[in-house]
């Protein structure tokens, strides 16, 4: 699991540190962040008629955006959430299944943003993938609740709480919140977890 953590945790941290140092003029050029976004952020326009910087960009951006962040505070919040979710999923989602859910949720977050979003600005951050981990966690909890009616009511309550949390974040951040990516990631994570639980171990 250590190599996975290196990719999903250490790489975003090192990337943001480098971009922050460039913003401050310590290394490279202050334009480094803009260049990183230009090549690695999710741009919905690339799915329409925008010209990509390289041939595979319309495909790779579905994952690369999750390794970039807006600033150190954005990164810190996401990394704290990542550590908390790792603890909640400990011994419940590990190894290649964890990789599949995380990466699939990042793609699901990008799809949610592409289908529901209207902003032409770039989208960055690992929150789509993190909401996918939250979706996997909640699906595991819901799956052991006896009774369909009780399970439905608890799932509805949990989803309402997450929706309220997103509304609060959207208001406090002045609308600069990719809730579409959160929704897409959550749905993808829950769906992938459901599929994995139904699949044979071998």
TrEMBL record:
<keyword id="KW-1133">Transmembrane helix</keyword>
<dbReference type="InterPro" id="IPR022764">
    <property type="entry name" value="Peptidase_S54_rhomboid_dom"/>
</dbReference>
<feature type="transmembrane region" description="Helical">
    <location>
        <begin position="96"/>
        <end position="117"/>
    </location>
</feature>
<keyword id="KW-0378">Hydrolase</keyword>
<keyword id="KW-0997">Cell inner membrane</keyword>
<dbReference type="InterPro" id="IPR035952">
    <property type="entry name" value="Rhomboid-like_sf"/>
</dbReference>
<feature type="transmembrane region" description="Helical">
    <location>
        <begin position="72"/>
        <end position="89"/>
    </location>
</feature>
<feature type="domain" description="Peptidase S54 rhomboid">
    <location>
        <begin position="62"/>
        <end position="197"/>
    </location>
</feature>
<keyword id="KW-0812">Transmembrane</keyword>
<dbReference type="Pfam" id="PF01694">
    <property type="entry name" value="Rhomboid"/>
</dbReference>
<keyword id="KW-0472">Membrane</keyword>
<dbReference type="GO" id="GO:0006508">
    <property type="term" value="P:proteolysis"/>
</dbReference>
<protein>
    <submittedName>
        <fullName>Rhomboid family intramembrane serine protease</fullName>
    </submittedName>
</protein>
<keyword id="KW-0645">Protease</keyword>
<keyword id="KW-1003">Cell membrane</keyword>
<feature type="transmembrane region" description="Helical">
    <location>
        <begin position="177"/>
        <end position="196"/>
    </location>
</feature>
<dbReference type="GO" id="GO:0008233">
    <property type="term" value="F:peptidase activity"/>
</dbReference>
